[in-house]
Amino acid sequence: MCHVIVTCRSMLWTLLSIVVAFAELIAFMSADWLIGKAKPSGSEDVDNRTGGSQEPYHPTLGIYGRCTRISHMQLSRRDTLCGPYAENFNEIASGFWQATAIFLAVGIMILCAVAFVSVFTMCVQSIMKKSIFNVCGLLQGIAGLFLILGLILYPAGWGCQKAISYCGPYASAYKLGDCSLGWAFYTAIGGTILTFICAVFSAQAEIATSSDKVQEEIEEGKNLICLL
């Protein structure tokens, strides 16, 4: 018989697992890893004819994508174009970024799988006498290691030609040049830290769902058990 067991600690672990997976996925897909040096928003000819002034903007560069602004003949029309600059894996700007993409993708796939399974831990707490919480916590720890490797390798690719075109000639491995780090990089770091917190917290979720009080309510015949 399925016993639905909901505790504060198990629910918090489930929610954190889902948030971490989505945060890492959004960061990976974003082009806001590097914020390039300021560039004029349009050509001098367009601005001189319209009598407008050049308003600088900052293009952004991700692991496989980028965002830049395209000015039309009318000054009022400035479109920001975002999309992948690499049509396939081999066109990613740096070998280090290719390795980063692999490590992050593996880590994110593990986190997404754990997030999916975590939803069902309210009803199923063990498989083949193994605690799902402990297994998921172990997988989250492994995913965190993949994420760390990816984040360590990412700055090594700042010396590639693509990064130099955004960050200036002084950009090199682990040196930003004229660029600054975007929100996606910080989100990936924050998500990695939360991944390890989730891995540790999974043990607390296991303790909460297997406590003596839970066992007492199961023996009383309750199918829905909610504990603070």
UniProtKB/TrEMBL annotation:
Q: Known InterPro entries for this protein?
A: LHFPL
Q: How does this protein lie in the membrane? A: Multi-pass membrane protein
Compartmental location: Membrane
Q: Which keywords describe this protein according to UniProt?
A: Fertilization, Membrane, Transmembrane, Transmembrane helix
Primary localisation category:
membrane
TM ranges are 12-35, 96-120, 132-154, 183-203
- UniProt entry tagged with the keyword Transmembrane helix: yes
One GO BP annotation here?
Answer: single fertilization
| GO CC terms, sorted | membrane
Q: Which family does it belong to?
A: Belongs to the LHFP family.
| UniProt name for this protein | LHPL2 protein
Origin organism is: Rynchops niger (Black skimmer)
